[in-house]
């Protein structure tokens, strides 16, 4: 079986990463990779590592009929694309922007947008709903890492006190546009914070937690940091809880037992374990009455393109890990 | 005036940094730089950037009479050195280890060690005591950055709720000994935590805070991170407080008004502003009822050798900034 | 078909990388991964990214019968292993050390070692001989990158003047042992040279060039550099030649036409195009009478474990690229 | 004595570095720091490490009378500034652009530009001429490092064969403008070449060598590399020569004996020895008949602003090292 797929917005970081994955996916036939800025050029012009991997060029047009359409067009652009283009009702859509992850009217994990319903595509939260879905809102990168750190607690109504979260992100998290804080001379060997306590991903995180634990008593305090590395997100979260380390390990182990990409380890992990993979690695510690959870993902894979492919696999009834058994870079 | 100075343990990172500073200090005459491992070799063997700066060689002996003795011998080694060597009573001692920063019997900011009293050498905490002191226990690097973030609050009895602290340290914080987590292949582009909630500097921090605010109601929750950079410490601390941002800025501004190295900025800072300087840069934000403090230092300077020289300046009645007006690396 | 494989020395960098590849290879069944230092421990103890990928543990023993034995034991250790262990005559051996790449008595690209003949495993030099071989000496990393830059010229007797080579290597090239030049504090943002004009890989390079061009008139002048990055080798080589850029591009294009991993590009390349892939990317420029060749590989893949798997594929009659279509890290 | 100084173009990398130096210089009074883009803002807006160091703001105007005017306006802009502004004849000018380093009509080391004569400001080439000069063309960064590697040979007519040069530069060499090759995601852990064999600094290098050795028989082949670090230039140069290593060391030692910033070492050096200093470190090796010279500088200091201050010191009769005894960053 080959799924006919198209990518809208294929010249950016997430689009490129998706392209790399789909080119290696055994059940995908790539119909087009659209890009306004690069139309007509071979994809290796924008993504030089793809030299020798494919002869495909960026198209200006996204109208070619496909079974699944990936939207990598950026925040705001996805909604505009769907408003301006006639996408057949039967086409599956997986959107990587934040346009359909959350809206103010929505209190459960499906966002209604006109005639379409977007299911929030975090398989560890609601895999069965994703399998039945036609349209997927792919979660944000920080949102993925933080939710995976907290879902097992929310499921058991155990979010009863404030949660203190730090998250350090690599430079690819900010995309390929040029900016002062992505200039190498500035960023190398440097650290800074941004959007302290106000990161936009908090909305989708809080919504998912309320979905699992409707009487969530916790507040999330979140400080995002810019780190001097290209790929990955390193999250720590801690909160007061009465359960022991052993109980917490059992809770997390059970919750993620059937989820192939989320792994609980009893060794102190480091970020590069997950770089260039679709994994989330979780680690638990207990210090006094504080449960400390470490959560690591690759922002471009489990935090974006990898999770999009995982969702496609679920939507089309494929084995969840198809095309996602990736060699870690490790170093 | 030239102060005759000696360094014990001059081949390590802190010793080397102290050597760089003392060679450029207008009021210091370096009598010896002792090192067991490097005795007899020119100092530029261990510190190649000093090639052309000095002809001094490491000595095996530390018995040469000096007016001030810097101990960079490592934790445990400083106490042993003083036990095994007869240091004249009038010799000033500035110890960079943790041996005299804290002990269980001490409830104020002076540690009694046999016949000697070590004054805790954080000028922003107790500059007058330092000016009168003969023996100084130079603070730890994380301890310096975290205390400078909290002292103005403690002074006003405003530590009334838990303090949540993250601190990311560069690789020089772990010294020059070889280890798996200082291997370049591992550390570059990587992040990990260590000593979560259990860092040994918490003892000296808590002691200083209790000294200023004897009924300190707060607990400090501290997660240290290893970052992929060589120099610097980036700290964030936050706590609930009723005071407004303007009040907090005034409080910090007043507290540090006469302290030349600790600067409060209203711009979001980044770590490299302080690298290769003796400065601490502080930044305040208020989000809801949370006051968020960012605190940045160079771990080898304000966090070690620079503060040691600052203390020497105070002990010998020199202008506090002498020899410490350093060009920032910036990039 | 499943090839039964064993790895001797699986705890190091090359062994770990080979393990990552073989676990994902569709035609391999891993019989054992031997390590003296790690015997009995799960492989993810040494290679934490393999957590969740396999339950295999390191074995002390390498005596389990296999069809192919990979030796990752280090220079000198491979020869010793074969001397001290009875490896059945029919077992294929792929050695990643330098023990069988070259010896003083050998003038062609097969090294006789007792009863065994080791074929030099550079597919772009002698793919047919590799297909027929039982024992393979896998080339060195610098040797691979430099040879691929020069083979098409040697094949046409065009090495008629001195060749000037610079090669910058990442830290993984020096293995996982701890040393002053692999300490993060030293290596980050730093550059140095080593083994200037005397790198040991020059022997195998010169032997291969003489094999193709027996009257090679050239000398290779080679400066290796340590670079502040973990993976990859960046090589430039230049020499005087009368041929035009177009002729050179045709020459290289033809030579590598049937070789799936070696790609000639007309765009100025950068190292990260090949990181975490088995590719070599070549780029040609002509400036005056100088032909300048850029050659990029990942030292752990095309320069070690990836090429070993490529050789295994050839030896066992598999498609050359099996298990080697890897997603580039790109960033 | 205080020299009244002004900076034109103070918001860029070289301008900022010059500002850092002049603020610490004991004999300089800064009259203005001009910047079109930042006029009216405090200098710490563009250079945040200067927070707390000075209250000066960028001025729109550069017309305030000064004794020395530093032009950091960029290539082409310096000539335009002098054409459009009336700078008094007695004002000393030190230009950091390439506008007056070389022109086609000039065969010696003074460039005539209208009524002004610009002396090429490489003290190790022509210190006496600089002492007598009113206008200085400050050398390029690569040009400085490469010339210092070759001047002693040229002085002795020993450039008799081709010189093969590699130079790896940090990202600050490309200035602060945003570009694809200065994006952190691209540059970290990456290497590439640019302007192969065609770097514009070759002109000023060749002119200086011909000045010392009018019958220079050599060609310089130069490959510049972009390296993944912020500061510094690492150069290797080699050529055939009959002299022994000892003779070469004596030759270089004698040539640089009276030059305080250029140091010949017999230990294999690394780039970070010179970072944040005004030094050039040279190292010599002999391999067969090849003399290999390593040359290291900080591109922003000895390669730009530091050398500009060195030239100012010479022009005003100060000790050459005044204000330039800088603490190396080392790590």
TrEMBL record, chains A, B, C, D:
Top enzyme class: oxidoreductase
Span of the signal peptide: none
Location, primary (coarse class): cytoplasm
Subcellular localization: Cytoplasm
Gene Ontology BP terms: L-arginine biosynthetic process
Start and end residues of each Semialdehyde dehydrogenase NAD-binding domain: 4-133
SMART domains: Semialdhyde_dh (SM00859)
Key words of the record: Amino-acid biosynthesis, Arginine biosynthesis, Cytoplasm, NADP, Oxidoreductase
Family: Belongs to the NAGSA dehydrogenase family. Type 1 subfamily.
Purpose of the protein: Catalyzes the NADPH-dependent reduction of N-acetyl-5-glutamyl phosphate to yield N-acetyl-L-glutamate 5-semialdehyde.
Protein name: N-acetyl-gamma-glutamyl-phosphate reductase
Source species: Pontibacter ramchanderi
């Amino acid at each position: 079986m080959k799924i006919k797929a198209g990518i809208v917005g294929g010249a950016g970081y997430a689009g490129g990463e998706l392209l790399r994955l789909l080119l290696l996916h055994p059940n995908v036939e790539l119909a087009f990779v659209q890009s306004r800025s690069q139309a007509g050029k071979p994809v290796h012009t924008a993504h030089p590592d793809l030299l020798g991997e494919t002869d495909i060029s960026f198209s200006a047009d996204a109208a070619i009929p496909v079974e699944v359409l990936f939207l990598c067009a950026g925040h705001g652009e996805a909604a505009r694309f769907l408003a301006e283009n006639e996408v057949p009702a039967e086409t599956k859509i997986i959107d990587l922007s934040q346009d359909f992850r959350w809206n103010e009217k929505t209190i459960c994990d499906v966002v209604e947008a006109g005639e379409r319903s977007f299911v929030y595509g975090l398989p560890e939260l609601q895999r069965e709903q994703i399998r039945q879905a036609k349209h997927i809102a792919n979660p944000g990168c920080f949102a993925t890492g933080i939710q995976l750190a907290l879902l097992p607690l929310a499921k058991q109504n155990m979010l009863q006190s404030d949660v203190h979260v730090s998250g350090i992100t690599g430079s690819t998290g900010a995309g390929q546009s040029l900016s002062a804080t992505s200039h190498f001379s500035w960023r190398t060997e440097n650290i800074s914070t941004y959007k302290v306590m106000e990161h936009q991903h908090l909305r989708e995180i809080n919504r998912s937690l309320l979905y699992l634990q409707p009487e969530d008593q916790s507040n999330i305090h979140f400080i995002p940091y810019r780190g001097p590395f290209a790929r990955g997100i390193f999250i720590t979260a801690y909160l007061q809880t009465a359960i022991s380390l052993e109980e917490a390990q059992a809770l997390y182990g059970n919750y993620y037992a059937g989820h192939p990409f989320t792994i609980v380890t009893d060794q102190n992990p480091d970020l590069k374990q997950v770089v260039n993979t679709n994994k989330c690695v979780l680690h638990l510690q207990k210090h006094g009455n504080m449960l400390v959870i470490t959560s690591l993902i690759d922002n471009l894979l489990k935090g974006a393109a990898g999770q999009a492919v995982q969702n496609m696999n679920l939507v089309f009834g494929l084995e969840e890990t198809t095309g996602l058994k990736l060699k870690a870079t490790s170093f």
